Amino acid sequence: MSILKLRIAILIGVHVLILMHVLYFGSDTIGSIDFQEFFHAFLKHGIINAGGILVLLAFLTTLIFGRFFCGWACHFGAIQELCWWLLNKLNIKPKTVDSKLVTILPIIILLNFYIVPNLLYAFDHPWELSIAIDSPEIWAFLPGWIIGTLTFLVDGFLIVYFLGRKGFCRFLCPWGAFLKLPNSLAMFKVRKTGNCTGCHECTKQCPIGIDVSYEINTYQKVTNTNCTSCLMCTSGCPENALSYQFINPLNEEVKLSHFLKRDQFSHIYIRDIFTSIRSKDFLLLGLTLLAGFSIDGLYGMGHFLAFGLAIIAGYFIINKNDNKYKYLWMKPLLNTLIIFIFLWHSVIKVSIWQGLTQFETNNYTSSISHLERAILLYPKSIGRYHLLLGQMYLLEGNKWSALHHAKIAKELNPNHEGPLQLLQRINSSP
Ligand code: SF4
Ligand code: SF4
Ligand code: SF4
Predict the structure, then answer these.
(1) Spatial CB neighbours of 180, under 8 Å, sequence gap ≥ 6
(2) What spacing in Å lies between the alpha carbon of 67 and ligand 3's midpoint?
(3) Residue 66's domain spans which residues?
(4) CATH code where residue 386 lies
(5) Which is nearest to 290 in space by CA: 323, 313, 321?
(6) In whole angstroms, what is the distance from residue 96 CA to residue 230 CA?
(7) Nearest CA to ligand 2 atom 2
(8) Distance between Cα 309 and ligand 3 center (Å)
(9) Residue 321 has what pLDDT?
(10) 307 and 233, same structural domain?
(11) Shortest-distance Cα residue to atom 7 of ligand 3
C-alpha cells in the first residue's frame, strides 16, 4: 500500500474513532479530547483529563518521531489536504505563501491565549494534581453550529485557497506551534541518504509546503519544524534518495543556520507554486493582529475563526499581484470595505471592554456611555449589556432608560431571572 493510501486509511480511521467517541461512549467514559484541555484544565487547574493525556502523548511521540500526530492523526490537517486536493481537481492552483509569520503568528496565538493567561491564573491559585478523564463533556469547547461551520469553512478551506497548502496549520495553529520545539529535537527525521538529481519532486509532494529539496541538499535533512513526518517526500522521490531515519540525539548536528533559510522556494522548477511575502511580513502581522483582536469573541466567535478571517483579510489587502484577483478595479473598494468592517468592530470591542471595566469600578456614567455606544454599533443584541445598562440607569435615577433596557433584556432572555428582578426593582422604586 502506498504511503498516501495508508495515510488516507488512518485518517479515515481517526474520524471513525471520533464518531464512536461521540455516538457510543459519549462523555460518560471519556470527556473532550481536545488540545485546549492541556492548557485550560492542566496548566490552569492541575486537572489531567483525556485532552491533557493526548497532548502529553503527542509531545513525547514528537520527541521521537517528529510531528507524526499532525501528519497521521489530526482531522483538521486532513481537511486542509482534502481542500487542496479538491482545488486541484477543479484546476484551481493556489500558491503556497512563504512568510516568516509561519513561525511567529502561531507562537503569538499559543502564548497569548493558552499559555500566559493560564499560567498567570495558576500562580495566583495554586493547584493540586487531580485526574478527571470524563470531564469536560465532549462538546465543551466547540462553538454553536453556525460558528462551528464557519470555522470549518474558513480554516479548513478558504485559508487554503488564499495562503496555500495547510494555511491554517502553517500560519495559525497553536497546537502545531506547541509541537515545534519537540519536533526540532526529534530523533527520526527525513534525511538525505542517496543521490539527489534536483528534480524537486519531493518539494512538490510535501503537503505542508516545505522546500524539501532545498533542505536536504543544504542541511542533509529536513529541519523545518512544520514537517509532519507524513513521508510523502520519501515515498515520492524517484531516486530513493530520502529516508526517514533515526540518529542518536547526541550525534545530531543542530545549528542556528538550520532555521534561517534564505534562498528556499526560489528554484526555477518550483517558483510557480510558491509566492513570497517576506518583505511585507510585518505589515501582514500588524493587520492580522489588529483585525483578529477586533473580532475575537464577538458573535460567539472563537480565536481560530477570528484569526482565520483576519489573516485572509490582511493577505487580501497586502496582495496586489496575484492573478486570482481578476477584478482588480474592485480591489481598492473591497480593501476599504474590509478595513471599515474591522475598524467598526474594534470600536465595539473597545467600547465593551471600557464599559465593563468602568462598571467594575462603579464609574456608572462612563460605563453607560461606552456600553450605549457598543449596543448602538453591535449588530447583535446582547441581553447582558442591556441588563447592566438598566441597572446603572436605575442607580443614576433615570427610571425611563432603566425600564427601556430592562424590557429589551427580558425580551432577549425571557427565562433569565436578572431582567425580571430589575423590572420589579424599577416598578417598586419611587
Ligand atoms: S498544525 Fe494543528 S491543525 Fe495542523 S495538523 Fe497539526 S494539530 Fe492539526
Ligand atoms: S525527489 Fe529525490 S531526487 Fe528529486 S529533488 Fe527530491 S530528493 Fe532529490
Ligand atoms: S518534509 Fe516530507 S515528511 Fe515532512 S511534511 Fe513534507 S513531505 Fe511530509
Answers:
(1) 103, 106, 107, 225, 226
(2) 10
(3) 3-178
(4) 1.25.40.10
(5) 313
(6) 18
(7) 237
(8) 27
(9) 64
(10) no
(11) 206
Q: Output the residue whose Cα is nearest ligand 2's atom 1.
A: 237
- Same-domain status, 250 and 390: no
Q: Which of 178, 206, 223 is the last residue of a domain?
A: 178
To test the pocket of ligand 3, the residue of 232, 234, 242, 274 to mutate (highest count of ligand atoms within 8 Å of its CB) is: 232
**88 SS3 class:** helix
> CB of 166 within 8 A of CB of 232?
no
Q: Are residues 321 and 414 in the same domain?
A: yes
103-136 pLDDT, tens digit per residue, is: 999 999 999 999 999 999 999 998 889 998 888 8
- Tell me which of 74-83, 138-147, 233-242, 283-292 is least confident: 138-147
CB-facing half-sphere around the CA of 108: CA atoms within 13 A: 18
The 3-state DSSP class for residue 48 equals strand
User: Are 202 and 165 in the same domain?
Assistant: no
Within this chain, do residues 214 and 258 fall inside the same structural domain, yes or no? yes
Nearest CA to ligand 3 atom 5: 227
Quick one: pLDDT at residue 325? 57
Whether residue 60 is found in the same domain as residue 196: no
Q: Which residue among 166, 173, 227 is best mutated to probe the pocket of ligand 1, counting the most ligand atoms within 8 A of its Cβ?
A: 173
Q: Is the CB of 216 under 6 A from ligand 3?
A: no
E strands of 232-367, at which residues?
A: 242-246, 274-276
User: Residue 168 is placed in which grid cell?
Assistant: 491554517
Q: Please tell me the total count of domains within the chain.
A: 3
Backbone angles phi, psi at 48, to 5 degrees: -95, 115
